[in-house]
């Protein structure tokens, strides 16, 4: 079953259906790519980048430019600086990397083209980076001194109802995966941002609002086709290479080769799902944090929620939003511990068919499927790009009152930023820390410090305030180029096995980026 890339443009969810179900407070919190009003309002932020080297069309030692060499090697389009289509092809999601110009962007149409591109570029000593959705926080799917292999044409999605598996092309974006799977009565857990690529999200873990029920995206991975640095295309599964399959489940995008296709176990589509939103007055913030952290990682697996603390330009807010895989009637009772906090209000509660709710969470109310993609990147896409910085932490023990006060103080600091806490527990934590490369299995929640625009100062102050209260781990999919000791923070006890696997499959470390696993 193919995706609907640029396909039928039927409206996916009417604005009225959305507004009827949610009060204004709930509506304000929905913004697909991040779940925070900050994210949706940041589109006017100034672009900047520390890496501003212009792409070069200079010939290689053979006298042929890399673009010419790629054109000779692959089916599919190759874009080069100064030529039509290059500017759009070079874009990634975070506007901070707008000025990074690869030497060429190759858009292969099949796995064999990826093999050829890798062989030809490796032979010439030209670096390549894979790109799926282009959402790497640190811009690691682009580079100024090499070539981007953009997998967006490898976007086919085929569901096998009998085996309850789905084969997903490495360039598919989450909203297209959800759409194709829902048509086949199936679901795969993943994030809410519709334009995140299946590759990056899976290879780094993949947390979303069905996560406590169905696990991480990576937990559902059963097989992957991957092109390694020697240009070989291998099918990696538990029989052919259990170490590499283990490593692909959270070992981080860009480390082992270029995946061309994933096969996932999928789950029966829940018939209905309910979005909810609870707000508290800021005066109850510490109690709200206490109630949420005692409840969110331990409640029924059918609920996954995110706690939001938004600085909101000096008028801080605290709320939680989440998804319940059931009907709305049960929600008030399930949220009772949160609603017991003084001033709590259930400001949003809307029950919908599962796919419709994913569109709501994606910020795609009233938009077509084509429009539910990034503007200027995907044909017909209307969702804005952003400039942002982020860091992350994990919390393994309930925050004591001083830790909760630190969160409150961080949020009250002037500036624009947010602390977004993803609740773990449930299916995510039933997997042992060493069973997959994703080590963060004994954590209660992940804090994402998110700062709007190109300045990182707001998140730095928040991250600094929280040092005494966090576990020392960080989420590799909220990849943080400024993090010292990132190897341990991302991979913990899994680092040695990851280093060994990397050494085996890419001994020359051809696939490289600043936080690549190296031994
Ligand atoms: C707005 C926004 C919302 C997000 N929401 C969530 C969320 O809800 N849950 C969550 O878990 N994460 C979330 N993330 C983080 C996201 O999972 C990571 O940024 C992820 O790496 C993005 O994947 P991508 O394919 O879009 O990115 P890309 O930039 O294309 O790739 C990310 C990394 O993977 C490599 N890579 C890409 N394709 C391949 C491939 N086929 N084979 C090997 N390596 C490859 C790239 O080289 C790069 O190093 C969000 C990110 C953003 C920007």
Task: Offer a concise description of the structure.
This protein is α+β, with helices and mostly antiparallel strands. The chain has three domains: 15-24 and 278-380 and 392-491, Vanillyl-alcohol Oxidase, Chain A, domain 3 (3-Layer(aba) Sandwich), CATH 3.40.462; 47-147, 2-Layer Sandwich (Uridine Diphospho-n-acetylenolpyruvylglucosamine Reductase, domain 3), CATH 3.30.465; 157-269 and 494-505, 2-Layer Sandwich (Uridine Diphospho-n-acetylenolpyruvylglucosamine Reductase, domain 3), CATH 3.30.465.10. Helix content is 27%, strand content 21%.
Protein traits:
Uridine Diphospho-n-acetylenolpyruvylglucosamine Reductase, domain 3, binds flavin-adenine dinucleotide, five-stranded antiparallel sheet, 27% helix, Vanillyl-alcohol Oxidase, Chain A, domain 3, 21% strand, disordered N terminus, 19 helices, single chain, 519 residues
Number of domains: 3
What fraction of residues sit in β-strands? 15-25%
Per CATH, the class of the largest domain reads Alpha Beta
CATH level-3 fold name of the largest domain: Vanillyl-alcohol Oxidase, Chain A, domain 3
Low-confidence parts, pLDDT < 50 over ≥5 residues?
1-31, 34-55
Which compounds are bound in this model? flavin-adenine dinucleotide
Biggest β-sheet: strands ordered side by side in the sheet = 15-12-14-13-17-18-16
Shape: globular
Q: Give the CA-CA distance, first to last residue.
A: 41 Å
- Under the CATH scheme, which architecture of the largest domain would be assigned? 3-Layer(aba) Sandwich
Overall structural class, as computed from helix and strand content, comes to alpha+beta
